[in-house]
């Protein structure tokens, strides 16, 4: 992308959407929160609005992100959880001071502290990851079938057979590749490939 920043991939699960801010980890990795302001933008989308973010806070966020990725990947394949990742997730979860409040309309909102808003937001994300990795929530942690992605995602489909972290990106690409392979099989290779 020449101008602006890479788009966000927005999923419905907070902590795995957060790990998705670095995508194509096994290909040409795309950093979707390259600046503190982009983290501010991302948090706002998930109801965790903060006024500002420092470079140090962005570093904390990325450390948490990679820790969640490592722990969720281990959980998805049935490996032991990596201790440094568990430590980092716990430390962010215990230091966050966000409070859940109920709106008159019956919706949950997060109230972040004025002095530690980014840390509080990261605490909410860490707690969400703990909920997923510990199996508290109904669903299954799995790894994306795309070989250049392998993102950990949370499968809440009834059959628990979802294969891709995101249907619009990884799923679509794989389907197209399969379609093209099928179309070209048994035929001469096209001479005018774009
Ligand atoms: Zn994927």
Automatic annotation (TrEMBL):
Every Zinc finger CGNR domain range = 140-181
Give the matching InterPro entries: ABATE (IPR010852), ABATE_dom_sf (IPR023286), Znf_CGNR (IPR021005)
SUPFAM superfamilies assigned to the protein according to its UniProt record, in alphabetical order:
Jann2411-like
Task: Name the domain of life.
Answer: Bacteria
Q: Which Gene3D superfamilies match?
A: Jann2411-like domain
Q: Which PANTHER family match?
A: BLL6575 PROTEIN
Q: What is this protein called?
A: Zf-CGNR multi-domain protein
Provenance organism? Streptomyces griseoluteus
């Amino acid at each position: 992308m020449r101008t602006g920043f890479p788009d966000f991939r927005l999923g419905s699960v907070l902590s795995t959407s957060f790990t998705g801010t670095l995508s194509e980890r096994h290909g040409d990795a795309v950093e979707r929160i390259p600046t503190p302001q982009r983290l501010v933008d991302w948090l706002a989308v998930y109801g965790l609005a903060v006024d500002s973010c420092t470079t140090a806070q962005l570093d904390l966020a990325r450390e948490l992100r990679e820790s969640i990725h490592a722990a969720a990947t281990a959980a998805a394949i049935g490996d032991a959880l990596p201790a440094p990742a568990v430590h980092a997730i716990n430390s962010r979860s215990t230091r966050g001071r966000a409070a859940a409040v109920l709106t008159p309309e019956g919706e949950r909102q997060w109230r972040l502290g004025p002095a530690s808003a980014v840390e509080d937001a990261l605490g909410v994300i860490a707690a969400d990851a703990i909920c997923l990795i510990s199996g508290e929530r109904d669903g299954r942690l799995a790894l994306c079938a795309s070989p250049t992605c392998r993102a950990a995602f949370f499968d809440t489909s009834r059959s628990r057979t979802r294969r891709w972290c995101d249907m619009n990106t990884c799923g679509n690409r794989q389907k197209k590749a399969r379609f093209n392979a099928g179309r070209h099989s048994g035929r001469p290779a096209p001479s005018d490939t774009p």
